């Protein structure tokens, strides 16, 4: 089977390819201008395993990688992926261009072996489910300029160590993208567009699909039906440390929200103060003007833009992101706590059965 | 005095393969170019004692006919450099080829890879599904030399096994669930199985544990009734395991149980409270109002 290859048409000049801007260094044309939105994500088995392997081995560092595949109508098929080298912290120009070079080289080599050469997004590992950052949004918007449909897969290796696969696919909501393009991320902007903090990200359901050959392989490889270490982890009764970590992060988030609140108060206060100053100045100006009119001089203008610059309203984006974060943590806590209760009741049942 | 045929003894190497590698090979086979029969590529991994662990692989384009073989060395080197940036501890441990048998040209390719690594492993992945079985075999090569002259290269089979990390096992399990349903409609539905179906996975785990305990107790029964001669090592192991089960008095257990349940419930309550608070703030618009 020879997959459709997208013709590499344009090679965009790369702005400094930092982690956020790596998308802009891509070569790849958008295949068709679809107005449909992505509704589901389909992963191939090997992509799943590669992501798991890369993210787990790189702990405690958080890593990223690129996803390649095709978009087919409402479904985004991810057929391959490769890892990015660990992000270099310094602002060395060489290091950044090395990152872009890595990407180009990798894509070229993969093209030679008939791998789909179409970027559809990226994956990253997250720590305890914290992924809602401003960088994520910036990366999304960067990608969006080149590819209309892109998705980000978040993998949480620590939650997966408890026996359940913590993988989710997210993309930004269309309305949010338009809003951010117009730079109207203030409260009024959000209210006009009727967006709440829930409407920034959209989580997409993931399917796993394998070619027939791979299915035969997997059937042959069928893991042993006996209990394994993963089972032992899953049945572990101690849920306290996990909950503790989650609650700690939650507390930090609440602190962040309070800080955001304070920023808003500051803004209001400074606006009020500016109004006062302006009123005083205006009065003085008027007095001066009456004076000058008496002396038969021209009246000075009553406005002075340079003295009273309008104070920029703080962006509500951080606030919303932190709220999103809180929601994620609460979800995780609920799931973990209910699981713990299930296990405890199971144990009680076993005790009562007369062991 | 005839010159002795030197047969250097290979060390007892064995190979362990991660499932990622096998899946990538299958994928590459499906994507091969039209005129090619088989796909070859490089294996990356680590060597620990006498065990070679294959963790990653990439495909190298090649061209072979009955007389000669051409391998794209530049591609191989470039990909290796790229992979080194991501995983510097992995090194070249050998190469793979799809197909069911060894080819004549394999000796030449093996030669090339011996320059890259000391004991290159040649892995053959049978994608033609001969005998209705998916076989993966590993070979290492021995040169048969007569004095100084190299006569032939012999491929000696070494044991090859698939290892699963624990999390990989979860991933593979997930792929299996989409497999067990033969009809296409239900395949689509089971393929939509949500990742966080915690209760079901918990039930499955409990089932497996129960199986294990049943097996152990069956074994003990058969030893006691004299059907099977007991091994002291197993007996001691079982005794140790049972000794680990804590004996709690009823009141102790009740106390522990209640405390844990209360903790879990309190945490759930707090998190729900927080969500309600945030939702209220949003409705009332107080999130964006100044603190008075």
From TrEMBL, chain A:
GO CC annotations on file: eukaryotic 43S preinitiation complex; eukaryotic 48S preinitiation complex; eukaryotic translation initiation factor 3 complex
Main subcellular location of this protein, as a coarse class: cytoplasm
Superkingdom of this protein's organism: Eukaryota
Keywords carried by this UniProt record: Cytoplasm, Initiation factor, Protein biosynthesis
Annotated family: Belongs to the eIF-3 subunit H family.
Quaternary assembly: Component of the eukaryotic translation initiation factor 3 (eIF-3) complex.
Function: Component of the eukaryotic translation initiation factor 3 (eIF-3) complex, which is involved in protein synthesis of a specialized repertoire of mRNAs and, together with other initiation factors, stimulates binding of mRNA and methionyl-tRNAi to the 40S ribosome. The eIF-3 complex specifically targets and initiates translation of a subset of mRNAs involved in cell proliferation.
Biological processes, Gene Ontology terms: formation of cytoplasmic translation initiation complex
Domain MPN: 41-176
Source organism of this protein record: Volvox africanus
Intracellular or extracellular location(s): Cytoplasm
Record-linked HAMAP family: eIF3h
InterPro entries: eIF3h, eIF3h_C, JAMM/MPN+_dom, JAMM_MPN+_peptidase_M67A, MPN
Listed name of the protein: Eukaryotic translation initiation factor 3 subunit H
Keyword Cytoplasm among UniProt keywords: yes
Alphabetized PANTHER family for the sequence: EUKARYOTIC TRANSLATION INITIATION FACTOR 3 -RELATED
GO molecular-function terms, A-Z: metallopeptidase activity; translation initiation factor activity
Automatic annotation (TrEMBL), chain B:
UniProt cross-references to Pfam families, sorted A to Z: JAB (PF01398), MitMem_reg (PF13012)
Record keywords, A-Z: Cytoplasm, Initiation factor, Protein biosynthesis
Domain of life: Eukaryota
Xref: CDD domains: MPN_eIF3f (cd08064)
Residue stretches making up the MPN domain: 15-145
HAMAP family, per database record: eIF3f
Purpose of the protein: Component of the eukaryotic translation initiation factor 3 (eIF-3) complex, which is involved in protein synthesis of a specialized repertoire of mRNAs and, together with other initiation factors, stimulates binding of mRNA and methionyl-tRNAi to the 40S ribosome. The eIF-3 complex specifically targets and initiates translation of a subset of mRNAs involved in cell proliferation.
Annotated protein name in UniProt: Eukaryotic translation initiation factor 3 subunit F
Biological source species: Volvox africanus
